[in-house]
Design a protein that fits this description.
825 residues, alpha+beta, seven-stranded mixed sheet, 26 helices, 32 strands, globular, RNA-binding
Amino acid sequence: MSEQSQLDPNTYDVHGVQDKWLPVWDELAPFKSGRADDARPTKYVLDMFPYPSGDLHMGHAEAYALGDVIARYWVHQGFNVLHPIGWDAFGLPAENAAIKRGENPQTWTYENIEMQKSSMRRYACSFDWDRVMNTCDPAYYKWNQWLFLKMYERGLAYRKDSAVNWCPSCQTVLANEQVVGGLCERCDSAVTKKKLNQWYFKITDYADRLLDDMSQLEGQWPEKVLLMQRNWIGRSKGAEVSFEIEGRAEPVVVYTTRPDTLFGATFFVVAADSDLASELATGTESEVAFNEYLEGVKAISEMDRLATDRPKSGVFLNRYAINPVNGERIQIWASDYVLADYGTGAIMAVPAHDQRDLDFAKKFDLPIRVVVESETDPAVTGQATADDGAHINSGPLDGLGKHEGIEKMIEILAERKLGTPATNYRLRDWLISRQRYWGTPIPIIHCPSCGEVPVPLDQLPVLLPDASDLDLSPKGTSPLGAADEWANVPCPKCAQPARRDTDTMDTFVDSSWYYLRYLNPQLDTAPFETAEANKWLPVDQYVGGVTHAILHLLYSRFFTKVLFDMGMVNFEEPFTRLLNQGMVVMDGSAMSKSRGNLVRLSDELADNGVDAIRLTMVFAGPPEDDVDWADVSPHGAKKFLARAWRLSGDVTSAPDVDFANGDLTLRKATHRAVADAQLAVETYRFNVAVARTMELVNVTRKAIDTGCGGADPAVREATQAVAIMLSLVAPYTSEEMWERLGHQPPMALAPWPIVDPGLLVEDSVQCVVQVNGKIKERLEVSPNISQDELRELAMGQASVIAAIAGATPKVVVVRQPKLVNVVLG
RNA sequence: GCCCCUGUAGCCCAAUCGGUUAGAGGCACACGACUUAAAAUCGUGCCAGUGUGGGUUCAAGUCCCACCAGGGGUACCA
């Protein structure tokens, strides 16, 4: 009571309730999930953890408001909910900010984390604050290194030379996701390729499982995300076929999805930038022309390469391959339309049935042979035909359709040992090396005599050297390379002078397993405890932006499968349900300073308070849709909260009053509202749940003012239901209402109202009687009227008899209790 | 180019299974109350036939086909 006296009981004080309840919640810790004696069933709600670049913004406000609805709902439903938060704290922005301001990336990062943490507390996120962790803590990245070494042991971490994305301005490699339209996402320079020796995770070993296990996620993840992952993995089935090359001892293998069109292969193309192309060109009269062409190809920027309507180019190598099924001598060309790193880097070209091959054939006047019957002639129309049809000009395949043709050809090739069935993937291994400072050092030591030597597990973590002694500005090699004292160490095997690997890991490694670290963020003997993992995981509900639809979610799924194979977890998919929230935009476009449409979260919170902003986010529309701040009304949300709050002051019955004697109409409305809201929350229609709550507030207001009055027990029942439903989105208002209603905090732990099915049943429902679909009569009938009874009743109505006018009904459709339709001839 | 999603009042959005006269909620607007007045607040009210054209059905916002518009994904993957 002493606390309440600080607030004016007649005025809804937005900031007053925040200041009042925040310390109380800190004290009561209603969302603590680690108690050993907790017998409640478990749920794990996970929000994608934030990157600590400055304070929270509108996007965070939306995402965390949505995750909170689910977490708080499950708590009210009696679950022991694990809802943790941490920071994805390694990464380039910290390094860039440090370079710009001359600060230490570590200082910058931890300052931002503290700022975000305090904003989140005030925003009343239902996090378990005992489980906080940051990926840049040595206690965390130690286990990145441990996992890396376990992967290395299993042959899943390896080094290779490869052409990687390189930004000549930033002087660093870029991940695929940092190349936008061929340009560096930060400085807009044209990205080039550079051959470097880098570390990779062998995610391609898991391609089939990553693809096939998606069937478990069907219906639980957005269809769009599953589709994007399927496309990204890009499994295709076909065959590998050997072609003899004149003047070369070894045959060359090509991959094709259409082995049935082999009789239509009229030339052969190798990727211009492949080793094979150079080898075939060397010593021929085309060598000079080829080298010129290759230089030209290398000079083309990534951006230009992406142009789809680029004309085909290439050079004849003056070499010939032999078509294995018909013995034909076919020309070998080099071109950049064949990719060196997909399949075998060489193809059989079937111009009649592949558009790219046809474009090439027409440009260089190469032969075109139709082998699958179609109405149009590709050579004339310029359109390759890929439809099913009968094979022609194909010897033993003649007359067969596409599917049988493929099978038959594979059979023939196998018999003659010229080919085998084969599967190819678009997915590439995951390049994890970064030439950056602010990341996890790769725990490998390079020894001149022993080669790659893993850092012994008992010497982990390999700590980052102090940034203040290093030049972090981009210069094309890792800043760690300059830390000689750090890098020069004796080889763990032979004790001779050796050198640490100076690259750091991609930060996607950090986020691939953080959901397991929350179980025991302080644990010093393992990344996590298997028993705890099997108790809490897989995550029941994951919430985050669709921007991570492919990379983060694919990598996390990969890690989980590796951990499963290592026997460390007993599940193979980490996230059971996934919700992708939309973005917060302004006037239809993404907010940005340069556009001048930035809405500051701190301003919005100051004007309307935490609850109103959370409510606005949730009520704006379906959670997957973008919230356009121009279309919503935080002020309206605040008004509604005041309206709801006012109810709690008008309830005059005692807290323990028996609802059974309350006004029946209001009781029914309450139970209907709770039942609807419950269903809406469970099906992600949070905006609808809010609308139901608003409706109940309106009905209760009327009951108090012009109906049964504030003393009726039903008014208390309704108002308490409002408070609980509201606690999913507006925890401060809800807690305040709960106290005014005579209850103890924390209201977050109050049980969800139990719906009485008896109160959902109506005494009577309206039934329409149609004749030929036109409404002739409305009847009040019992909800459990029988089909025959209703038919009889309807057919007896004067208006219906008049409308039928003596005709014989063709059919009478009865959908009791709501509809009868009499259909005349 | 290919693939996917979405089109409901001025605006944001609702509408288990196909089933009453499409409307739960909100914004905006109009009017009324309060006020010297205005703002704020409270109350009352208003508006579309579901992008277009076909089809299936006794019955279509809901299912099917085509087109149009908007949004997203992808980029020569053989």
